[in-house]
TrEMBL record:
Transmembrane regions: 7-23, 29-46, 67-91, 97-118, 138-159, 194-212, 262-291, 303-323, 335-356, 372-390, 410-430
Lipid biosynthesis listed as a keyword: no
Source organism: Pedobacter fastidiosus
Top-level lineage group: Bacteria
Protein name (database record): DUF4173 domain-containing protein
InterPro entries: DUF4153
Length: 521
């Protein structure tokens, strides 16, 4: 215990110093990867951490996320990095966790319980015969009364303005005295950087120091992936059962409750299949073949796509509801399963319609992040329907859905982070200016990694500016000049920013952009 506590506290201190060195007045890039390497080295050096296969997989995933930040340096790669870090933290300290959602919550819990973890580890520190446990025992006698006194001081201040005035004078006097002492002792110290170091110290301790409460891991361990039939005795009534009985009367006591639910499911899925069949028939005849845009084409596609995506999510929720329990084991449920599978197939056809709608949108209006997001969400819906099918066919639990979909979503997040989306959007739109009505303002607003492409295609941007609606650019005397000036301004901002950072902020995209503009030495 002594060696473990000393090792972790020393590693935390070094991590705070490293954090200050890597990130102070720097952009997030190569420094994130270096910091992650340090965290992984400390974690795998710690003898108390079990080096399981699961931990190694999430460690590699986190390192991949760090590498992708250096390569693509986009908002998506940063989000992927933070999520992978939370997952790595959660798994490192709770290796029985099986879902990414619980791992993220456990990782977050690690971060918010930093004071408890630090005090517990400091209390275990031994330097020869010296230890800090008596100090923290004494601190306990001071801290708890101090909190109580502070709470009642606030209450009494709210009740009496005169009392509040004297409390304010006392606090101001104490603050001034402390300020004078700090300025006298640390007059040459950069206080903002000290605060930044403290933040890095807290962050590193939250990652490395394990929280002693394993309740989340233990709670998830009880969850099953395979459904089992629950035989409820009438005498065993939960609080939820009693609440439902208020609205259902004696219906819950009837032996035919399962058959009733089965009949309701048959009617529901039969009606929904007919309803969706009519919608799919309309889409196939009017959208899939020979579609010609007319009227408010953009608004029609946009609203239709949002409604269809929401309906697909609701469809999965309805299936999960009906096949949540004993109905899976009902002897006459084959017909209900057939109708549920038919509705899943029809929802897949509906997703194809979403792809086609979004494809038309991209064909006539170009690529944007939102349109790519619709494609990604449609892919996730297909995966969701596939796992729901397995749940119904193999009698799996809701926990199985969370576990499987969570792992797939995290894997896809890593895959999607490998793509440089901003560059892809600009390349596609500029290569299809003859057929696509592009938005030059949107293209110029994308990240700095697109500046070389935009600079090479100034003529296309100028031409597209002439196609803008008069109402949109009526305030400008010459829309083309405004767009080009905006592009030149962004290039100037990049050059100024690039000169201010060190090698710690290096990333491939900035380097390529700087190489194009001749900034690399």
């Amino acid at each position: 215990m002594k060696n473990k506590s000393n090792f972790l506290l020393l590693s935390t201190l070094l991590g705070g110093l490293l954090f200050n060195f890597l990130f102070w007045k720097e952009r997030l890039a190569l420094n994130l990867l270096i910091y992650s390497v340090y965290l992984l080295i400390i974690t795998f050096t710690n003898p108390e951490v079990i080096k399981s296969k699961k931990l190694k997989i999430y460690a590699l995933a986190h390192q991949l996320a760090g590498i992708l930040v250096v390569i693509n340096n986009s908002d998506l790669t940063l989000v992927t990095y933070y999520i992978s870090l939370l997952l790595f933290i959660g798994i490192a300290h709770n290796q029985q966790i099986r879902t990414v959602f619980t791992a993220m919550l456990a990782g977050f819990l690690q971060m918010v319980t930093v004071p408890f973890n630090a005090i517990k580890n400091l209390a275990d520190v031994r330097i020869g015969n010296f230890n800090l446990k008596p100090f923290f025992k004494l601190l306990k006698y001071i801290l708890i009364p101090l909190v109580i006194v502070t709470v009642f001081t606030c209450l009494y201040s709210a009740a009496s303005n005169v009392f509040a005035h004297y409390v304010e004078l006392a606090l101001n006097s104490i603050a001034d005295s402390l300020g004078d002492i700090i300025n006298f002792l640390f007059k040459d110290l950069d206080l903002p950087q000290v605060a930044f170091f403290c933040f890095g110290l807290i962050l590193t301790s939250g990652i490395l120091l394990s929280f002693f409460d394993k309740s989340m891991q233990n709670a998830e361990f009880k969850c099953k992936e395979q459904l089992s039939r629950i035989r409820r005795h009438l005498n065993q009534k939960s609080a939820w059962f009693e609440f439902i009985q208020i609205f259902t009367g004696g219906l819950l006591h009837k032996k035919l409750a399962l058959k009733t639910e089965y009949i309701i499911g048959l009617i529901s899925f039969g009606s929904l299949n007919l309803l969706l069949l009519s919608l799919n028939a309309i889409d196939i005849t009017t959208l899939w073949f020979g579609y010609k845009p007319s009227g408010n084409f953009s608004s029609e596609l946009h609203q239709g796509t949002n409604s269809l995506i929401f309906s697909i999510v609701m469809a999965m929720a309805v299936i999960i509801y009906f096949f949540r329990g004993n109905l899976n084991f009902y002897s006459k449920s084959k017909t209900l399963r057939f109708l549920a599978f038919a509705w899943m197939i029809q929802n897949c056809i509906l997703i194809i319609s979403v792809f086609i709608r979004d494809g038309y949108y991209i064909e006539f209006h170009g690529l944007t992040h939102k349109r790519i997001g619709v494609l990604v969400f449609a892919i996730l819906c297909i995966i969701g329907l596939a796992t729901v099918y397995v749940k119904v066919a193999k009698q799996k639990t809701l926990f199985y859905l969370f576990k499987t979909n969570g792992n797939i979503w995290f894997a896809l997040l890593l895959v999607f982070s490998t793509v440089n989306w901003d560059v892809l959007i600009v390349k596609y739109n500029l290569n299809h200016t003859d057929s696509v009505s592009i938005d030059p303002d949107y293209l110029i607003s994308l990240s700095e990694k697109t500046l070389p492409l935009l600079d090479k295609n100034r003529n296309k941007i100028s031409k597209s500016a002439g196609n803008e609606s008069e109402t949109r650019l009526a305030i400008y005397a010459n829309p083309k000049d405004v767009l080009i000036n905006k592009l030149d301004q962004r290039i100037g901002f990049f050059k100024e920013r690039y000169e201010k950072v060190s090698w710690l902020s290096w990333n491939l995209q900035d380097w390529n952009t700087a190489e194009y503009f001749g900034l690399n030495k």
